[in-house]
Design the sequence.
């Protein structure tokens, strides 16, 4: 059963305090409790972006957030956009004819606003990327791009919103420290499940595989946040979002394939919310941050009330959707050894250019000495029950040169055990493992 | 192009519905909050074919907060939705015939309670063998409709021996409309035995008939009001009749407003789709490329109930051979009944399947003849004075050659055809062409639905209320009809207000389909406007008054300014036995040039550009016109490259946007809409209509471009990387550049 909880947030520049059921999504809070029906539910699974709002400056799918996750946050919805007149984006959508049936438009406008707030002069490529998490079935997008381009560079009617109300701190649902969070995990007899970005767990909830009433939030837990250098290692907190990893020069230097992987995950809304910890805990063989971690000898740090343990990433996963993570444990973060001169590349094939899950992915990490490979790591996703490393392939590549590459291609095909599923076929995946491997190695070698 | 001398028509007038939509204040069905409303939900069959041996709702009815649980036995009226063959039950009675078929309805105080009630209903099935394959259904004789076209003598032409003959078998998949707003309806009891149904829909008059039939009440007691609708594309033509009737039953039974909003998964599993198709075709031409004979065997998978399948098939049948002069043609077409979700209307309406075949044949033929595919089309293109395969002589408004010339010029066809052929390396470009024509309106089979009405009321301040029976579904109807009303009345377009369609305001105006809205509702508006002008003229004479002054003067002289308009299209005649006659009133013409890039190692195809040309008669509003083209082209690209459903035991496996893939902003190429205006005399200001052609001839242009790029023929879409790669393997032209 859901509790009633107190929430406080800054909504469209106004302080809002209310009491709401703990199992509501942000989308329900907006639409049903606050009667702000501009955000639409096109799918409820983070796929269409029709429910897009801006949370603390980032576009987010409100169908994939719990209401208690915005306690203390600054939330902007389409209803708050216009000032005395329409926002330049709204004007531009009207002027260019970017609106047809209109159901996607509030989400498009909000995604466009989040983009222009950060990148006022966005060009066409950035506009496409910025809207990649939003589907429109009417317009073919052309006039929508034109609308955002037209608004680019025009002054916004409001200064950036700032928090105007302190959080109500709904206790149990939004712990602020690791200690509290770990306590919660033990308290409700393993019933309580954490939610971070919500981009996996709320999809499961929609499918009835997870009760929303038993979720509590991790995003306010300070110990899970951050990306930093610690004792000769790169440390990435489990709460780091894909966007934060893309933006971090440190990550790019130590594990170059990781931000490349993060950059192709979902769309902007998914990357803004989805976390490294969630990607690991979800334990999908197609998870895109995982091959880079394999290809960098990363170690996963696990904590519970009573213990702390480190797990090499390859030992963390035990099968599809299975890992060693115990019900009372949290992933604290990931440690990656810093290796001088490391190069890396991540490549994948998906069913389309955005909002896609990998059919095959490859991460390569290499160092060179005098132009010859000195250290090689190859990991592949979506071609086996878990992400796998390919030791024979690595061995072949160590020899260097084109002949080695040819043998590596053959080796990798023998090292993967793909399956047929909705997304692709076994035969195709096996061949593509070789194609992507070669392309990734060439890129690394030519970098 | 003739100058129509218009002032508002032809302008890029802003959409009157856009401001509310960009502000988020437009109210779609799920945004309406009616106090005291109940949540409706539907119990659905898990089996493709079964007998219901037990259906016990007693326990569900006892749950506190559950206000109604209804089965087929509780339907006061008729348990069949009125449609062409009226074979579709509102609720399954004895048998279920597809996965997802509605078995029982509940209305409860909350969403959770409604879900609980569904779980509590005890239902047992005896599973029966299911027909899941269309060829098998054909062998079993499960034919819902069979049409033909007989022109000339195909047999003897094919026997001549001096002709070049190409043949192929082509397969096309299900396509999901994928409107971003799932279907939804709200039923409100009117307190006098009837129900008002609000909802997302294209055809209020279809829903009205379904509601009245299920309740057993007069049509006038079944009032249907369309709410702002988040996309349709045909998917909200026939299919909403089911939730419309269901929500009305629940509202009637409970005496309370009831909302029935489908989830995305439910919508994808049970609402209509584009029919999967199989086409066998033989095309014969002389050695210099003159088409002589075409033979077509066209098969569609209709699913469990007929809905609109017979008319979908008809359109495909008469357009099967493309916009070409063909002296001998024989078309045999059938739609069969299977135990799968009923397929229905979808933009293009039976054409995309057969046009994929026909245009792929043209590309093959060009290759065999060693002829440029553009030249082959130009040589055989229908022109004024020519006859279609149904013997319909086209006397005016045939802009096909113009369209071909324009897309060729826009794409720099000849140069790129040569340049791309020289691409080496793993990633290669290609350029391809395909064309189609489209008979506008409901045609020979839907004549009785053809007329349309409009009501115009001029208020004292000069503002004008326009009510029509066709709907705005995003395509821009409100904008275009406002322009026509303003033009015909001579009033400022800002003063025209097109109100939401309501069956109580205008007579049955048929469906919003077949690109007929501009022409039919437009003409009805012109009819009404002419009556109003006729009333005004004697009062205002030549006084040079402004519109508002003229209206004020009429008010002073007690002249009423309101009128009903009615449009009935010119009669057409057609013989269904021979397939000869005027299948439709008139035609629009279209051609696409598509440029692609094929990664021959991965099989991935990326569309680089689409030059999309359309002769749609007078363009009432270029912005909405371009929008229709851009949107249709991207749907066509989805159909060509990624969209398909996978089924197991009749159940759709990919029922969400993460598994049913449609193009995102990163997947769309540059699109150049090219609107060619060959005016059509009976159309308002020469307009012909433009909703559908943009989607039709995209897929065959894509596969032709893939052939040009990579030398492989795909007779089945979508052209997924897996399929392209397999074809490349088969051709033994796999990775070349991968060798060191
Ligand atoms: C539209 C869409 C597209 C997507 N595209 C991709 C893609 O391209 N590539 C890809 O890899 N993934 C993709 N995903 C999946 C998802 O976004 C990622 O897996 C994401 O990283 C999950 O992180 P999260 O924080 O949102 O997880 P959540 O949903 O919050 O949590 C997922 C699971 O992890 C647990 N969990 C979260 N944090 C911790 C922690 N610190 N300790 C222990 N357990 C924890 C939760 O309890 C839950 O069981 C996509 C998802 C969607 C909806
Ligand atoms: S409703 Fe589709 S992303 Fe949220
Ligand atoms: S305008 Fe209809 S979905 Fe975008």
Sequence:
């Amino acid at each position: 059963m859901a509790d009633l909880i107190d929430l406080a947030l800054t909504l469209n520049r106004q302080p809002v305090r209310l009491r709401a059921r703990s199992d509501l999504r942000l989308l329900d809070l907006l639409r049903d409790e606050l009667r702000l029906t501009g955000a639409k539910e096109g799918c409820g699974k983070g796929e269409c972006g029709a429910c897009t709002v801006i949370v603390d400056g980032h576009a987010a799918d409100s169908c994939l957030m719990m209401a208690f996750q915005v306690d203390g946050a600054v939330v902007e919805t389409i209803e708050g956009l216009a000032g005395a007149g329409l926002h330049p984006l709204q004007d531009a959508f009207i002027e260019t004819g970017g609106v047809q049936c209109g159901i996607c438009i509030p989400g498009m406008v909000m995604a466009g606003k989040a983009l222009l707030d950060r990148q006022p002069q966005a060009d066409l490529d950035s506009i496409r990327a910025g809207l990649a998490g939003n589907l429109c079935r009417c317009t073919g997008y052309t006039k929508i791009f034109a609308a955002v381009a037209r608004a680019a560079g025009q002054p916004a009617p409001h200064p950036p919103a700032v928090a105007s109300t302190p959080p109500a701190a709904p206790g149990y649902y939004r712990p602020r420290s690791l200690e509290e969070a770990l306590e919660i995990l033990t308290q409700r007899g393993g019933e309580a499940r954490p939610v971070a970005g919500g981009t996996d767990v709320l999809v499961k909830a929609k499918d009835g595989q997870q009760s929303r009433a038993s979720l509590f939030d991790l995003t306010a837990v300070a110990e899970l946040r951050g990306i930093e250098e610690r004792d000769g290692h790169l440390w990435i907190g489990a709460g780091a979002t894909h966007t934060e990893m893309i933006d971090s020069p440190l990550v790019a230097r130590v594990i170059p394939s990781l931000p490349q992987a993060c950059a192709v995950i979902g769309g902007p809304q998914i990357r803004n919310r989805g976390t490294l910890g969630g990607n690991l805990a979800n334990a999908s063989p197609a998870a895109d941050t995982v091959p880079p971690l394999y290809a960098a000898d990363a170690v996963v740090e696990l904590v519970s009330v009573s213990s702390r343990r480190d797990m090499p990433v390859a030992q963390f996963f035990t099968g599809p959707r299975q890992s060693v993570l115990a019900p009372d444990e949290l992933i604290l973060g990931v440690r990656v050894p810093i290796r001088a001169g490391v190069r890396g590349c991540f490549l994948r094939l998906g069913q389309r250019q955005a909002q896609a899950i990998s059919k095959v992915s490859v991460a390569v990490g290499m160092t060179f000495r005098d132009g010859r490979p000195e250290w090689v790591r190859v990991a592949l996703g979506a071609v086996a029950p878990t992400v796998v490393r390919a030791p024979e392939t690595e061995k072949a590549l160590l020899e260097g040169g084109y002949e080695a590459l040819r043998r590596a291609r053959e080796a990798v095909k023998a090292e993967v055990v793909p399956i047929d599923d909705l997304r692709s076929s076994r035969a195709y995946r096996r061949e593509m493992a070789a194609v992507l491997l070669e392309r990734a190695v060439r890129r690394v070698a030519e970098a | 192009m003739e100058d129509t001398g218009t002032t508002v028509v032809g302008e890029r007038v802003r959409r009157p519905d856009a401001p509310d939509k960009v502000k988020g204040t437009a109210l779609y069905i799920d945004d309406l909050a009616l106090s005291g409303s109940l949540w409706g939900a539907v119990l659905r069959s898990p089996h493709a074919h079964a007998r219901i041996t037990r259906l016990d709702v007693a326990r569900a009815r006892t749950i506190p907060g559950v206000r109604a649980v209804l089965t087929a036995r509780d339907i006061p009226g008729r348990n069949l939705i009125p449609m062409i063959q009226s074979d579709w039950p509102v609720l399954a009675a004895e048998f279920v015939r597809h996965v997802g078929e509605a078995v029982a309805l509940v209305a409860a105080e909350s969403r959770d309670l409604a879900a609980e009630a569904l779980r509590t209903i005890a239902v047992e099935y005896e599973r029966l063998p299911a027909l899941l394959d269309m060829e098998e259904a054909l062998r079993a004789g499960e034919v819902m409709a069979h049409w033909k076209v007989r022109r000339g003598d195909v047999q003897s032409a094919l026997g001549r021996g001096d002709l070049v003959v190409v043949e192929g078998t082509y397969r096309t998949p299900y396509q999901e409309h994928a409107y971003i707003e799932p279907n939804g309806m709200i039923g409100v009891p009117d307190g006098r035995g009837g129900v008002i149904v609000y909802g997302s829909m294209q055809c209020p008059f279809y829903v009205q008939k379904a509601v009245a039939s299920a309740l057993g009440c007069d049509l006038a007691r079944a009032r249907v009001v369309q709410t702002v609708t988040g996309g349709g594309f045909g998917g909200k033509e026939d299919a909403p009749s089911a939730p419309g009737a269901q929500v009305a039953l629940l509202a009637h039974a409970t005496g309370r407003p009831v909302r029935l909003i489908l989830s995305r998964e439910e919508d994808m599993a049970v609402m209509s789709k584009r029919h999967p198709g199989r086409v066998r075709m033989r095309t014969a031409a002389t050695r210099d490329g003159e088409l002589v004979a075409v033979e077509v065997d066209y098969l569609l998978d209709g699913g469990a109930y007929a809905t609109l399948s017979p008319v979908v098939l008809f359109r495909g049948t008469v357009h099967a051979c493309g916009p070409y002069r063909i002296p001998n043609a024989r078309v045999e077409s059938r739609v069969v009944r299977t135990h799968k979700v009923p397929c229905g209307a979808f933009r293009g309406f039976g054409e995309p399947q057969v046009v994929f075949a026909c245009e792929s044949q043209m590309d093959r033929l060009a290759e065999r003849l060693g002829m440029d595919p553009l030249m082959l089309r130009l040589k055989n293109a229908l022109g004024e004075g020519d006859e279609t395969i149904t013997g319909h002589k086209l006397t005016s408004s045939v802009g096909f050659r113009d369209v071909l010339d324009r897309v060729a010029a826009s794409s720099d066809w000849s140069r790129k055809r040569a340049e791309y052929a020289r691409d080496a390396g793993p990633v290669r470009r290609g350029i391809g062409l395909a064309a189609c024509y489209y008979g506008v309106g409901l045609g020979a089979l839907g004549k009785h639905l053809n007329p349309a009405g409009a009501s115009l009321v001029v208020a004292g301040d000069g503002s004008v209320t326009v009510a029509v029976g066709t709907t705005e579904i995003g395509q821009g109807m409100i904008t275009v009809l406002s322009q026509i009303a303003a033009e015909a009345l001579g009033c400022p377009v800002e003063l025209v207000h097109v109100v939401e369609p309501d069956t109580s305001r205008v007579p049955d105006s048929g469906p919003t389909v077949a690109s007929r809205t501009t022409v039919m509702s437009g003409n009805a508006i012109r009819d009404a406007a002419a009556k109003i002008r006729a009333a005004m003229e004697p009062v205002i004479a030549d006084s040079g008054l402004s519109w508002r002054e003229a209206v004020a003067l009429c008010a002073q002289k007690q002249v009423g300014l309101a009128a009903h308009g009615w449009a009935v299209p010119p009669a057409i005649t057609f013989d269904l036995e021979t397939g000869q006659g005027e299948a439709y009133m008139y035609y629009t013409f279209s051609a696409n040039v598509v440029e692609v890039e094929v990664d021959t190692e991965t099989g991935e195809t990326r569309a680089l550009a689409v030059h999309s040309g359309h002769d749609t008669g007078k363009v009432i509003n270029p912005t909405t016109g371009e929008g229709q083209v851009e949107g249709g082209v991207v749907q066509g690209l989805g159909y060509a490259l990624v969209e398909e459903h996978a089924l197991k035991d009749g159940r759709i496996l990919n029922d969400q946007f993460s598994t049913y893939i449609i193009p995102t902003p990163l997947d769309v190429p540059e699109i150049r809409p090219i609107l060619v205006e060959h005016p059509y005399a009976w159309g308002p200001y020469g307009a012909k209509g433009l909703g559908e052609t943009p989607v039709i001839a995209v897929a065959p242009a894509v596969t032709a471009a893939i052939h040009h790029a990579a030398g492989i023929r795909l007779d089945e879409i979508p052209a997924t990387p897996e399929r392209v790669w397999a074809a490349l393997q088969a051709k033994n032209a796999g990775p070349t550049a991968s060798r060191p």
Residues 734-740 of chain B have pLDDT under 50 and may be disordered. Chain B touches chain A through 77 residues (CB under 8 Å).
